[in-house]
Amino acid sequence: xxxxxxxxxxxxxxxxxxxxxxxxxxxxxxxxxxxxxxxxxxxxxxxxxxxxxxxxxxxxxxxxxxxxxxxxxxxxxxxxxxxxxxxxxxxxxxxxxxxxxxxxxxxxxxxxxxxxxxxxxxxxxxxxxxxxxxxxxxxxxxxxxxxxxxxxxxxxxxxxxxxxxxxxxxxxxxxxxxxxxxxxxxxxxxxxxxxxxxxxxx
Length: 202
Known about the structure:
The chain has one domain (3-192). 81% of the residues lie in helices and 0% in strands. It is built from six helices and no strands. Helix 1 (3-29) crosses helix 2 (42-58) and helix 1 packs across helix 5.
C-alpha cells in the first residue's frame, strides 16, 4: 500500500485502533481496496467489531474514557506500528521504517485524544465527552476513506494532523498540570484554614 495510506492509518489508530483495522479489513473484504489478507479474515473482523462496540460505549462515559485511554497508552501506538508494518510488508516497502512512523503518528493522535478527554472530564456534564467521541469516530472513518481513495492527499493530511496533535498535547498537558496544581493548592488552603486565592495565576 502507498505511503500516504500507511501514515494516515497509523494516525487514525491513535484515535481508534479497532475502528481503523475494521474499516481497512472490510475495505479489502468487499473489494473496495487492496488491503492485507490477514485483516480480512472473519475472525479478525469479528474481534475488531466487538472491541469497537466496547470502545464506542466506554469512550462516551466521563472518566471511564480516560481510564480506557490510559489502558491504551501502549496498545494504540503498538497497534498502529503493527498495522503500518503489515501494510508496508504487503506492498514491499520497509516494514520496520513504516512501523516506526505508524507508531509515532498513532502516539501523537493518542496524546491529543487522551489529554483533551482529561480536560473535558473536568466539566460536570457528559455532553462534551459524547460530542468529542462521535467527532473522533467520524474523523477516523473519513480519514481511512481518504487514505484508501487518495493516498497522497491522506499522507499530507496525516503529517499535518500529527504535528497539530503534538502541539495540542503539549499545551493541554500544561493546562491540566496547572489546573491540578491550583486545585491542590486550594485544597491545602482549606485544610489549613487559609483563604483561597481565586485570582491566583496559573
